[in-house]
Q: What sequence folds into this?
């Protein structure tokens, strides 16, 4: 297991952690300012969100790389299932944006239950069918796709994948090398079968690992994520399982925290992340 005590090369920031870097919202920092702040603190990578890039994806990607950081990801495709599913064109646009940014991985939050159906099976089948068409297009653009299973409380309108096992089954069904999974501690911390699930998967199947914490008394399931060390998720145990499955990539801090961390000075948030990463992750 990697030792992060004196090494932040694998530390990445998901810009959602600062409430996104949109003017007048969250940190409100320009992308360049954010990149500089991460570079100064020894971060290795950044994951952006589509809405932050507008027409500047190429320039922001280049600026990030010139500062010595990787663009490890872009969030995300439109939903692929559920009432709010995006069109094929909208999905293609997100792939093109990831390519323009030079992001290694494009994250997929699947969307909820396929209209007119109940339960998960039909939705998962529909998801697999769409991915069979999408994965080759992403491959042509040099973009990897990461399916992120969500905590079951997000079923219905946000996801039809609730466990890592669900996501791996879809990968198996689709059978594309550029389709893998992202594991987020917020979504898997409760899963006592995670270690078992991750045994014997292909060592290159995990494309991302996301950090935050589950607060003992969470007040908002979407926007009250905790800072690492403040909650009840066994972060070291989860990382051990993920690394035993072959993952050696970035540990991306992704904290949606409307009432706490988004209101703090972004410099304090970034400093806290580095300290917690070294000692709790
Ligand atoms: Zn995540």
A:
């Amino acid at each position: 297991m990697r030792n992060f005590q004196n090494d932040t090369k694998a530390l990445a920031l998901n810009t959602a952690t600062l409430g996104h870097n949109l003017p007048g919202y969250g940190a409100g920092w320009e992308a360049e300012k954010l990149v500089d702040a991460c570079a100064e603190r020894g971060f290795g990578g950044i994951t952006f969100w589509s809405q932050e890039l507008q027409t500047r994806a190429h320039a922001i990607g280049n600026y990030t790389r010139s500062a010595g950081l990787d663009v490890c990801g872009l969030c995300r495709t439109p939903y692929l299932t559920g009432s709010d599913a995006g069109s094929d064109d909208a999905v293609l646009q997100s792939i093109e944006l990831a390519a323009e940014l030079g992001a290694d991985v494009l994250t997929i939050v699947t969307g909820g239950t396929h209209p007119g159906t109940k339960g998960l099976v039909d939705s998962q089948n529909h998801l697999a069918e769409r991915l069979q068409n999408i994965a080759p297009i992403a491959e042509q653009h040099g973009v990897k796709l990461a399916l992120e299973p969500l905590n079951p409380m997000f079923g219905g309108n946000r996801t039809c994948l609730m466990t890592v096992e669900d996501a791996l089954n879809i990968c198996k069904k689709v059978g594309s090398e550029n389709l893998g999974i992202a594991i987020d501690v917020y979504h898997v911390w409760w899963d006592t079968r995670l270690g078992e699930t991750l045994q014997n998967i292909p060592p290159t199947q995990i494309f991302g690992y996301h950090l935050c914490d589950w607060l003992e008394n969470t007040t908002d399931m979407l926007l009250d994520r905790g800072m690492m060390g403040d909650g009840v998720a066994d972060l070291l145990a989860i990382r051990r399982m993920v690394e035993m499955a072959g993952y050696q990539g970035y540990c991306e801090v992704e904290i949606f925290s409307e009432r706490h961390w988004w209101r703090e000075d972004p410099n304090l948030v970034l400093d806290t992340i580095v300290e917690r990463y070294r000692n709790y992750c």
Summary: The chain has one domain: 11-280. The longest helix spans residues 121-140. Residues 182 and 208 are 4 Å apart (CA to CA).
